Amino acid sequence: MKPLGPIPAGFEALDGELAISGRKASSLVEEAGRTPLFVYSKQMIAERVASLRAAMPARLKINYAIKANSFAPLLEHVAGLVDGLDIASGGELEMVQAASVGGDRVSFAGPGKRDEELEAAIAAGVTLNLESENEAQRALAIAERLGKAPRLAIRVNPDFELKGSGMKMGGGAKPFGVDAERVPALMREIVDAGCEWRGLHIFTGSQALDADALIETQANTLDLAHRMVSEAGMSLPKLNMGGGFGIPYFSGDTPLDIEKMGAALGDKLETLPDTLADAELFIELGRYIVGEAGVYLTRIIDRKESHGETYLVTDGGLHHQLAASGNFGTVVRRNYPLAIASHFGAEPAEVASVVGCLCTPLDRLADKANLPRAEVGDIVAVFCAGAYGASASPSAFLGQGPAEEMLV
Ligand SMILES: *Cc1c(COP(=O)(O)O)cnc(C)c1O
């Protein structure tokens, strides 16, 4: 038997079934017309943003990194709750434009921005988080051709990292951002070239659950911003301090203590140097905002035994749930939170592995989990499916195609 991850708070049983936003899994599946189906709860997302705002200093603004989940109705919902949106491609620019989000609320980071992407972003008034000196030159040349002052910020490759983070994005050689020691010179250069100076972006990593590590990183981020701005002799209109707030996926993971983080950041903001006194301060979060608000529902198609082990074979799989299958940035596969939605809250009665319908041993949603007895036709729920599920899985693999998605 292998443990399952913790089911996020807020999911309850209704008539013995999992309910999401007060609606039974079977009725959601009926409305969608088929499984597999992602269901995202509006209310849980709104509550998450509200609790974050309550914990953090009032001055801190919150951006949503749309790569976590860009389902159009969800994007519109989240856009109405947060201060700004972070995008990482021209495709994501089209998505925020379709959601009628003004370019002044959008910033665009990511290495390898193509000229067409830079042009579309500059034309839309989006802030470009420059990833290199070369990108700065291309952006300035395109802006000149368009006759527009580009909104430019610099993404910094910091000289420290976020300890304990699932995915490190700073410290040492990286394809992301400009090495901190070269940033002051680039700041002066782009301001002299006539850009609208939008400040700095310092992102150090993802999926951290340790408040102390994040507190230390935020303090380092503010200190580094101060050093670079002082050296350049410039002001700082805006500082995107990155994010990295994680959610519990696996057995033993505990939720991030955001009250502790908010208190520490509040103290730090009391004593900011003059260089940062007027800067708008942002954090940028993806999974923390939407991850726990999403559930993936998939139906059991077959129930079989092999050498004494039970397999529940579903109509979903890694083509929608790459991360839950253990194939998206994890070293050792561990079970995500998962339940039999048709018998939610029932006592476990057997050990079974839940697998997907793809012809590969990688396609496993739960390995040797202790579950209530489930039959063909029952619905399985994979939790923590609101981020990096549909948006980060190879849905074309084996001709399967995308899952349905619903915001309720
Ligand atoms: C992916 C990404 C995020 C969001 O990360 P989460 O772990 O989902 O919060 C934020 N900022 C940048 C620059 C990113 O690349």
TrEMBL record:
It comes from Qipengyuania polymorpha. SUPFAM superfamilies: Alanine racemase C-terminal domain-like (SSF50621), PLP-binding barrel (SSF51419). Keywords: Pyridoxal phosphate. PANTHER family: DIAMINOPIMELATE DECARBOXYLASE, GROUP IV DECARBOXYLASE. Pfam families: Orn_Arg_deC_N. It comes from the Bacteria. This is Pyridoxal-dependent decarboxylase, exosortase A system-associated. Residues 44-291 form the Orn/DAP/Arg decarboxylase 2 N-terminal domain. Its cofactor is pyridoxal 5'-phosphate.
